[in-house]
Amino acid sequence: NLQTFEKILIANRGEIACRVMRTCKEMGIKTVAIHSEADANSVHTLMADEAVCVGPAPSAESYLNMNNIMQAIKSTGAQAVHPGYGFLSENKEFAKVLAENNVTFIGPDTFAIDAMGDKIKSKLIAKEAGVNTIPGYDGVVENVEDAIKIAEEIGYPVMIKASAGGGGKGMRIAWNEKETREGFRLSSQEAAASFGDDRLLIEKFIDTPRHIEMQVGVLADSFGNTLWLNERECSIQRRNQKVVEEAPSVFLDSKTRAMGQQAVQLAKAVQYKSAGTVEFLVDSKKNFYFLEMNTRLQVEHPVTEYITGIDLVSEMIRVAAGHQLSYAQDQVGINGWAVECRIYAEDPYKAFGLPSIGKLTRYIEPTALHNVRVDSGVTEGSDISVYYDPMISKLVAYGKDRAEALHVMKTALDMYVIRGVKHNIPLCYEVLCNQNFVEGNFSTNFLPEVYPDGFHGKVLDAKEHNQLCAITCCLYAQQQHGNRQFLNQTRLPQLSGNINSWEIELNLAEKKVQAAVVKHNDHYEVLINGERMKVTTADINTPTPSFTINGEDPTIIQALRFTSSGLVHVQYKGTVFDIEVADRTVASLKKYMPEKIPEDIASLIIAPMPGNVVSVNCAVGDMVAMGDEVCIVEAMKMHNSLTASKDGKIKAIHCKPGDSISEDDLLIELE
């Protein structure tokens, strides 16, 4: 067994900290966790051999606080630091301070971090190394006027992005001068807040690009060996952040895989060692352009690990300890297919996902399934807080080919129980079922193209509508039957106890259905619209029961709750449906109930998500036009501009910069 390190400190939190600790434990290395006050009882804190608090909840005062992290390293005697991704993983100052203190940084040298972390420098180095680059301006954009001049020279549309950036922060696409002004302002604010560096650059925006990412292995060591580990397809994104990733890519062929060679050339040009990723954009004609290099372990590294069989974290630790890689290029193959869904605590019906906070009241991962891996840093009872990224986990499914991997993933999404916060499983499920996605015909513009008016969940066809109604009938019958069973019941029953048939009315997706259900010993018989169905069920009292209708493939659902007013919330094929269920007599009396009229909220500006108010750009008495920005709210590190939904005069302002706000708080009123 190779001698590496005795103790490693992981300068991160959440799922990636847990992921690194898992490999350390396998290698017999002791681990140290750092945590903020808010994370004192989080999974990564409890999983490590030692844990040190490095400051209050905000990242800037804890996970980015280099002095406190250095204190933690000294007090625990850690010999090396693994930075994970995000936070200090691509910070050259941090790598430099570690080197000065003789602590090993498990990642590349400061030269490579510096050269590749600056998008302007990295583009010039890539050009020199013979890598294809996107046409653009090779320098820092000084101010807004400068930005407009450059944008007009390159030609719209342009991409404005933070030089120090990543993770979709500080990036805007502009199609005209007005959008360039706005994009420049918002991007520089976001860049300053996220990276402490507001320098921006501008380049041509490649239309219908496919964001194909090439991993240049963790596989570069100090002995001149550099491997590339095939590609990852990361085109399904919202707000420049990835949602679904897979490896290999459906789109590439042996000719386009030549970008692997270019990725290796670039890594060698900066004497790269450890894990890294070179990102390329591929256009519809299969031309590829260098986008950026991430000098760290990628979020979506598990899909690469599945198809290559290489533990990337283990290789990073070996290389940092001065050993050679344990693989050669000819040992890196493509074995099978892997798909990853990033499961976020966010509401997919608002802008494809605005953050949702809360406590995970029920949480069961689908790890019992074969070929499913869940990288998470939460457990039942964990809090999803406003301070950090809202990712719950990375759900990874593997199969011998793409069809099998997608099938395993859908089952895993069905079996994944997450209660207490909103989550994006409905969106992930719909993406996997989309015909264009299944055929491999998609680009980074996939979500806006498929859902031009926003995402509204699954649309049921006639067969699915009947299926879901039949399942709901069985749930209702089960509940009614259960409600009649009492222990120690000594009173004489008023009705005979053996009622086993019910006539009910359902209302699902604005469509009323008359149904009858009969409970037999081993199955239910359901009659809907003259169609008779035999329904058998397994695990009906578990969170994920499965139903078999007329002997077809079983359908897994989650019955989330029954309300006293007769609403049943059922998660079916990813989406949660609210179904009204009532005895026919009760249903016939509903028409006498007064209807609740929804209030008019056009004159109110309401917080779409929890966060902090950055600025209020209006005063009481101001006239505003529809679409005018009235305030900016920061949530989970992203700046969101809130606008007036009609013309009017500002009547009242209920927030000020720096305020902490919750979802649905009233911020501003118009007359």
TrEMBL record:
The record's Pfam families line, in alphabetical order, gives: Biotin_carb_C, Biotin_carb_N, Biotin_lipoyl, CPSase_L_D2, PCC_BT
Cross-referenced SUPFAM superfamilies: Glutathione synthetase ATP-binding domain-like, PreATP-grasp domain, Rudiment single hybrid motif, Single hybrid motif
The record ties this protein, via PROSITE patterns, to:
ATP_GRASP (PS50975), BC (PS50979), BIOTIN (PS00188), BIOTINYL_LIPOYL (PS50968), CPSASE_1 (PS00866), CPSASE_2 (PS00867)
Coiled coil where? none
| Principal location class | mitochondrion
Q: What Enzyme Commission number does this protein have?
A: 6.4.1.3
Stretches assigned to the Lipoyl-binding domain: 596-671
Q: Which GO terms describe its cellular component?
A: mitochondrial matrix
| Protein's organism | Ciona savignyi
Reactions catalysed, as given in the entry: butanoyl-CoA + hydrogencarbonate + ATP = (2S)-ethylmalonyl-CoA + ADP + phosphate + H(+); propanoyl-CoA + hydrogencarbonate + ATP = (S)-methylmalonyl-CoA + ADP + phosphate + H(+)
Gene Ontology molecular-function annotations: ATP binding; biotin binding; metal ion binding; propionyl-CoA carboxylase activity
Task: Enumerate the Gene Ontology biological process terms.
Answer: lipid catabolic process
Cited Gene3D superfamilies: 2.40.50.100, 3.30.700.30, 3.40.50.20, ATP-grasp fold, A domain, ATP-grasp fold, B domain
**Keywords carried by this UniProt record:** ATP-binding, Biotin, Ligase, Lipid degradation, Lipid metabolism, Magnesium, Manganese, Metal-binding, Nucleotide-binding, Transit peptide
NCBIfam families (UniProt xref)? PRK08591.1 (NF006367)
Residue ranges of domain ATP-grasp in the record? 123-321
Q: Where is the Biotin carboxylation domain?
A: 4-452
**What is this protein's name?**
Propionyl-CoA carboxylase alpha chain, mitochondrial
Task: Tell me its cofactors.
Answer: biotin
Where, per UniProt, does this protein localize? Mitochondrion matrix
**Lineage of producing organism:** Eukaryota, Metazoa, Chordata, Tunicata, Ascidiacea
Q: Quick one: which pathway?
A: Metabolic intermediate metabolism; propanoyl-CoA degradation; succinyl-CoA from propanoyl-CoA: step 1/3
Check the record and name the InterPro entries matching this protein: ATP-grasp (IPR011761), ATP_grasp_subdomain_1 (IPR013815), BC-like_N (IPR005481), Biotin_BS (IPR001882), Biotin_carboxylase_complex (IPR050856), Biotin_carboxylation_dom (IPR011764), Biotin_COase_C (IPR005482), Biotin_lipoyl (IPR000089)
Q: Which PANTHER family match?
A: CARBOXYLASE:PYRUVATE/ACETYL-COA/PROPIONYL-COA CARBOXYLASE (PTHR18866), METHYLCROTONOYL-COA CARBOXYLASE SUBUNIT ALPHA, MITOCHONDRIAL-RELATED (PTHR18866:SF33)
